[in-house]
Amino acid sequence: MQQDIKTKIHRIAPRSGVGFEIKAGHILTVIDPEGEQVSDMIAYNVADHREYMSSGRSIDYAGRMFLTTDDVLYSNRSTPMFTILEDQVGRHDFTLTPCSAEMFRKLYHEDDPHRGCFGNLAEAVAPYGIGPDAVPIAFNIFMYVHVDSDSGKIEVRPPLSRAGQFTQFRAEMDMIVALTSCSAGQSNNFTYKPIDYSIS
Ligand SMILES: [Zn+2]
């Protein structure tokens, strides 16, 4: 990895999340240290939290469902928020909402569900005054959602990421970012692992 050796690598424990600020021009590297682990990412304009990273805008402008190197992640106001730089995995999802307690109840019939990425993202952005209803569709880094080209039927498969692979994002504005180590069994081949990240 082309990384300044002084760049600190932070670890997100399994089934948890973090929030932080990033300045325009800095590079966020999201690493899957053990392989087959998803990380949900959301972002807001630091100057106006009503501007957030938008799945619909980004997919529309890319003209593709699956975004990778050189693609731009846009805000709901059509402003670039991140540009994807080196992407060693090449497959991510930008269509599904963060896993949540309600989702675990509905899809997997769990009686006492984990709060999921949704709860972790909401907690991570709460100190910035951003409420849970403002948590949008996340850019689901390393998540592999297979789509049948005829029926549109979707199937969540194990991520293609192998241990140590990473994806880099250049911040195009000053942002509040929240990042998780995903809590959904199906998305992570049924083991919960950490996610590493650095900002340089
Ligand atoms: Zn999740």
Description of the structure:
It is a single chain. The longest helix has 10 residues, at 116-125. The protein has a six-stranded antiparallel beta sheet with strand order 1-13-3-11-7-6. Strands 2, 4, 5, 8 and 12 form a five-stranded antiparallel beta sheet that branches. Strands 9-10 form a two-stranded antiparallel sheet. The model has no long low-confidence stretch (mean pLDDT 96). Helices cover 13% and strands 34% of the residues. It contains three helices and 13 strands, in the order E-E-E-E-E-H-E-E-H-H-E-E-E-E-E-E. The two termini are 12 Å apart. The radius of gyration is 16 Å and the shape is globular. It is mainly beta. It binds zinc ion. Zinc ion binds at residues 40, 98-99, 116-117, 182-184, 187.
Task: Write a compact overview of the structure shown.
By secondary structure, the protein is mainly beta.
Features of the shown structure:
200 residues, mainly beta, 3 helices, 13% helix
Helix content: 10-25%
Following the backbone from N to C, one meets helices and strands in this order, namely: EEEEEHEEHHEEEEEE
Rg over CA atoms, rounded to whole Å, is 16 Å
- What's the β-strand tally? 13
Q: How many domain modules?
A: 1
Roughly what fraction of the amino acids lie in strands? 25-35%
| Strand arrangement, major sheet | 1-13-3-11-7-6
* Sheet of most strands: 6 strands, antiparallel
Described by the principal axes of the CA atoms, the overall outline is globular
